[in-house]
Write the structure tokens for this entry.
Amino acid sequence: MPLLSMHGISKRFGPALALQDVSLELEAGEVLGIVGENGAGKSTLIKVLGGAYQPDAGEIILDGEPVQIKSPHDGLSHGIAVIYQELSLVPELSVAENLFLGHLPSNPLGATKRGELNRRSQEIIDLLNLDVKPGDRVASLRIGVRQLIEVGKALSRTHRARILVMDEPTSSLNEAEVAQLFAVVRQLKADGIGIIYISHYLEEVFDICDRAMVMRDGKVVGVRPTNEWTPDQMVHAMVNRPIEDFYPKVHVELGEPLLEASHLQLQGKLEDVSFSVRSGEVLGLAGLPGSGTSKLGEIVAGARKPSAGSMTLRGQRYVPRSPGKSIAAGVGYVPADRKKEGLLLEFSVAENVTLSVLPALSRLGVVNMKQKQKTAVAAIQDFGVKTNSPKAPVRSLSGGNQQKVLLARVHQPDPKLMVMNDPTRGIDVGAKVEIYERIGEFVQAGGAVLLISSELPELIGISYRIAVFREGRLVAEVEREQFSQHLIISYAAGTDETYDETYSGDQNGEQVGESA
Amino acid sequence: MTLDEQSATLPKHRAFSGAVGETMRRGSVLIAFIALCIVFSLLSPRFLTVSNWLNVLLQTATIGIVAIGQTFVIITAGIDLSVGSVVALSGMVAAVSMRAGAPAPVGILVALGVGSLVGLFNGFSVTYLKMTPFIVTLATLAMGRGLTLAVSSGQTIFGFPDAFNFIGGESIAGIPVPVIILLLAFLAAYFILSRTVFGHGVYSVGGNREAARLAGIPTVRVELLVYVISGLLAGLAGIILMGRLDAALPTSATGLELNAIAAVVIGGASLFGGKGTMLGTLLGALTIGVLANGLNLLNVSPFWTQFIQGAVIFVAVLSDSLSQRTAE
Ligand SMILES: Nc1ncnc2c1ncn2[C@@H]1O[C@H](COP(=O)(O)OP(=O)(O)OP(=O)(O)O)[C@@H](O)[C@H]1O
Ligand SMILES: [Mg+2]
């Protein structure tokens, strides 16, 4: 008898059928992978399992007993721990307080039992093999560490977790953190916990999952043991067409230098950085967390002021005083954390995609509403954003579609240079290729891209040149002919050893959301 | 990802979460307002007369104008507690300067200037000094009231040029001048909030300040400006109030800020920012006005009037939070 089976689950949001007769089974000690395009219904399915959504039809059977999961609390009491796609930690609180948020150990008077809290938190921290203390403020931690704490939080909430569900847990982890997470997953698996693992990284699915299920348009299109899938088959099942080239490249003649930076300095973060990007070029910025690449991106985008140094844009002095000024000068910025720095989640898709282009859609400060609507509808179609309506709040979109809204917004003012920090976070394989193609078209038309990415294969796949950073310094510029993971990692780590385990281009570990 | 599939999911209706549509869809203010009107017209024959309605509008003018300014501030997730004091202070400074011989237009400009200056001070403290709006404006509330008392030595000042009596008490085509000013202020504010780049900025600052900044919205300028607008409109309300009473009282408009905030909240705005409309605020102010007027016509004691007003605010906010919960 399987630990869990879900039968004929359907869920409708307004006119859209997000899940259509979906069934799955999960054994104890098994890891089931779920993959599928953005908006395929993966998150919706596990929200139904976790009790966050009520299905319109279908049943959930745990250990052979049909159960009603009416709320996340219900789910927890059945031993179902879910880590949702959206991070839910409170940055102002400590690690321990976050781990036990909502069920802090307390005495009968309601006062928190500090000792017990710290002891139990330490147990979880040890289990996850994390280098943090229970008292550390979450705001001071890198996103990757926060994601691992989410796992701990999910575990702490159910005293006998039987099912652990993870929705894209690695979208902001570096390779070392992924390895750390997988070690925990293997341990939980050995303890007999059933695990559902959602990811857009197929290598991970092949690595950690026993079986993999592919969803498309709210339906299951295939379930097999992982070793009976080939990556090509899996991709084909996801996007319903074969993908030949994951990193499409176009041939571009490089033009004039577009951006030149000399001796940029940022107190304690960047040390004498000089570089240039030519039109037609994708310059990748690689480095370990804290190496300064994200900070550099912020400086170029006008979000942060350098403490010294200068820049020119197309030969003109470029002193961005605010992101707005940069956008007006033709520099677009895709921030790494779309929820905090990118989108207005409660606002409509239309409002979001037109936010940066309002000056161009207005005369004397008055917005031409007709033109705004047209622009919005065109951008939504252009970027293939899957939404019920342009008026739908961005929050109601699937994670990857939210990311597309952000990309669409940044493209609207017609930038010449784009600073992109993890532009494909949470985006499915098919749509990723479309974004790479779009980047290709953009540079072909004379634009240039500064690409910061937590995925080394992505950096290598689409950059023309990679600037490697270590501790705030630009230590090497690698030309495409010399690209290799090994070389870039060794520069980033400052050694000739192979540092596969410790490499990360994860720039997001640096504090996000700080304003200049 | 197929593009035709995407376009198929795009319905052909209006693409915008228009401010009006939003208010109407939720409609809790409108329903409350209409329900109140029906109840009062059944209970009192005098309620649905033209003269009574002009009276309601006249009573609502000051709160309404102040609430319009407050709406801008609240949508950015701020709050302006100083408005009551600013109404009194700007009126009083104008009164003192006119007593010292300044002509009426100068008096009016002085009042508007004083209001804008306090607003600028609030906005500067919030944006550049990074202080909490609640605390800043709580301080200016006290400072403003103190200044008013100091400037007037605690005395009421009487006797102004005719222009003031015109603004406060006369009518054009049967409509009291304060009501005309309210409507003009409303139309202007409605346009600014829903149609201009600045108005879009106001919403986006309240929606997510950092994301708005990175998207190119001049967030500091927007925030500064909403407090200036709030102060300016409080100054305007100060002129009207002074004209109506034909006197500048150092204690006038005490507690007005609470009614103004109530009007905005009844109108559907959220104190967390990003949400609210001018139409909602106008209806909110009218609801408060109609309630006071109707209860007065029915001879309900002022004590109970206060209680009932509070209860209405509670219900308005409750229905909003319930409708939001079911929407999720
Ligand atoms: N609360 C909601 N209101 C309206 N529509 C929703 C809501 N939640 C999800 N949807 C819709 O349901 C569909 C499935 O979304 P879901 O989030 O499950 O996708 P997903 O497979 O997790 O995608 P991604 O890989 O992008 O995270 C999408 O079309 C989405 O717009
Ligand atoms: Mg999802």
In short: The interface with chain A takes residues 1-3, 6-7, 9-11, 13-17, 195-198, 200, 203-204, 207-208, 210-218, 274-275 of chain B (CB under 8 Å). The longest strand of chain B covers residues 157-158.
